[in-house]
């Protein structure tokens, strides 16, 4: 197993007043030649958006874009005719494909919202743009990992045009957890969303992350009141 640890404070980012954002990979004005992407994983942005503020209409193409609210909700409109509020407990996915325009605004005037936005490079270019949004409240399981994204339309969670998976886990008690990769040639981006995790005898704190590859599986020990996210992606991109 090979891995690289990224402490939370080493991420890039900026505070624009209405937007306080941290970037795990090069994005906007943040560029690090050693952190451009991890295989097919291109972006992991950790955004705090002020009430009523957000991103006006802008274009995307040939990218799988996943939004996971951690608090609050985000109001979405796009050129496919979709309009909705993505609330905490939901996951949203867009296959930008041949091209879309969309806007993302904090749905609430009086409170900040916090969101993960994840971009994954697709395995098919110029597909017809697609939108999906589901609640993951009913599939969430306490004290174990649960899948919220896969390559398969009939599988649990949402799906994208890439052999990638996303798992979340929320733990109220200490537990040794194991993850077996769907494909041993893939890699895993593993982040401590909240709390503390021990990985390979190292303590990982809130928003610390590890890139893991060259293994079929790995394990970690979760402390009580912790929340983790795993993103498995192909490395040959």
TrEMBL record:
Q: What are the recorded GO MF terms, alphabetically?
A: metal ion binding
One protein family per Pfam: Pirin_C_2
Which residues bind Fe cation per the record?
58, 60, 102, 104
Keywords for the protein's UniProt record, in alphabetical order = Iron, Metal-binding
Matching SUPFAM superfamilies = RmlC-like cupins (SSF51182)
Which residues belong to any copy of the Pirin N-terminal domain?
A: 13-120
Taxonomic superkingdom: Bacteria
User: What Gene3D superfamilies does this protein's entry cite?
Assistant: Jelly Rolls (2.60.120.10)
Entry-linked InterPro entries: Pirin (IPR012093), Pirin_N_dom (IPR003829), Quercetinase_C (IPR041602), RmlC-like_jellyroll (IPR014710), RmlC_Cupin_sf (IPR011051)
List the CDD domains hit by this protein, alphabetically: cupin_Yhhw_N
Indicate the segments forming the Quercetin 2,3-dioxygenase C-terminal cupin domain, all copies: 148-233
Cofactor requirement = Fe cation
Cofactor binding note from Swiss-Prot or TrEMBL: Binds 1 Fe cation per subunit.
Q: Does the keyword Iron apply?
A: yes
Family as reported in the entry's similarity comment: Belongs to the pirin family.
Its name, as the record gives it, is Pirin N-terminal domain-containing protein
The organism that produces this protein has a lineage beginning with: Bacteria, Pseudomonadati, Bacteroidota, Flavobacteriia, Flavobacteriales
């Amino acid at each position: 197993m090979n891995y690289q640890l990224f402490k939370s404070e080493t991420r890039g980012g900026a505070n624009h007043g209405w937007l306080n954002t941290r970037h795990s990979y090069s994005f906007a004005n943040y560029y690090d030649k050693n952190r451009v992407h991890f295989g097919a994983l291109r972006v992991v942005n950790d955004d705090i958006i002020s009430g009523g503020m957000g991103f006006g209409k802008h274009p995307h193409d040939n990218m799988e874009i996943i939004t996971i609210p951690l608090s609050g909700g985000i109001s979405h409109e796009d050129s496919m005719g979709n309009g909705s509020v993505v609330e905490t407990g939901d996951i949203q996915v867009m296959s930008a494909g041949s091209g879309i325009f969309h806007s993302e605004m904090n749905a609430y005037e009086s409170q900040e919202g916090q969101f993960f936005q994840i971009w994954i490079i697709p395995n098919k270019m110029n597909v017809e743009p697609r939108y999906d949004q589901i609640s993951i409240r009913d599939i969430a399981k306490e004290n174990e990992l649960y899948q919220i994204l896969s390559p398969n339309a009939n599988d649990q969670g949402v799906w994208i045009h890439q052999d990638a998976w996303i798992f979340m886990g929320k733990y109220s008690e200490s537990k040794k957890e194991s993850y077996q990769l769907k494909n041993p040639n893939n890699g895993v981006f593993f982040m401590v969303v909240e709390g503390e995790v021990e990985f390979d005898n190292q303590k990982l704190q809130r928003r610390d992350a590890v890139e893991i590859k060259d293994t079929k599986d790995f394990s970690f020990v979760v402390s009580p009141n912790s929340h983790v996210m795993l993103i498995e992606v192909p490395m040959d991109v």
